[in-house]
Amino acid sequence: MEWFKALILGLVQGLTEYLPVSSSGHLEIFKQILGIDLPDGQNLMFSVMLHVATVLSTIVVLRKLFFRLCRSFFTFSRDEDFYTVCKILVSCIPVSIVGVFLKDEVEKIFGSGLLVVGICLCVTALLLTFAFYSDFRGGQLRKADSGRRIGWADAFIIGIAQAVAVLPGLSRSGTTIATGILLRDKRGEVATFSFLMVILPILGEGLLDTVKLLGSPATEAGAQMGLMPILIGFAAAFLSGCAACSWMINLVKKGKLLWFAIYCAVMGVICILW
After folding, report:
1. How far apart are CA 65 and CA 32, in angstroms?
2. 140 forms bridges with which residues in the sheet?
3. Contacts of 173 (CB under 8 A, 6+ apart)
4. Which domain holds residue 58?
């Protein structure tokens, strides 16, 4: 893969992982535009590195909260931070089930072209629109810190939304944030929770994919890709992810989701008609 294509895919992954427009859907779109058709080994290796980069960007942006949560959990403090981590673990149950038992079926969907991506982008647009208008009461947008704290049931329901969002074109961040808002949870807390809850599933998927790589002939094909495209894609995904994560948290607090809904609807229609 040429270095500039790796750069573009890295930027797309970093930005769209956090913005509610579907990273998987946009990667498929840009692969079509750039004419990228990587062998399985190279595609898997590059995908793993991009996702690890976005996990690192989450940890960097939310580092104070992240390490505070880790300290509380591993010391069994039984305080609010401890139970927040427990709720994050609960939210990971649905997507873990999908990853273990339905991974092959989901991967088949990713190769089905842009029609599925377009339909899922339109669904994302509808979810964001419902969430946006549900936040209004008497013509006024509710404050970011108003609403309830994320409870155990809310965490599991948001986790189900994350599991459904494995479909290409259905934005993970958009789906989970919209679900939290529809549940009347605090917007700022929902955004932070959404970005933290993806860390374990991405690392778990990366581990499974790495094991799959090491145990198959695809390893040699992956090694032939070269170090430069991987490093460029990783750096681009990390830096753009840091920017997008910070930006998205502020946008959710301000309730500005409607523009993303419009964007997803337009892109969805384009993909369907492509």
Report:
1. 38
2. 137
3. 17, 18, 19, 20, 194, 195, 198, 248
4. 3-273
Nearest to 179 by CA among 198, 200, 193, 196: 193
Q: Which H or E run contains 230?
A: helix 227-254
Q: What is each CA distance from 19 to 5, 171, 191, 244, 252, in whole angstroms?
A: 21, 8, 11, 7, 10
pTM: 0.86
Which residue from 221, 131, 124, 173 is spatially nearest to 13, judged by alpha carbons? Answer: 173
Enter the tokens of residue 134.
């549900």
Q: What is the pLDDT of residues 143-188, one digit of tens each?
A: 767 788 999 999 999 999 999 988 888 888 889 999 999 999 998 8
Residues 6+ apart with CB under 8 A from 246: 61
Number of domains in the chain: 1
CA angle (153, 157, 162) in 5-degree steps = 145
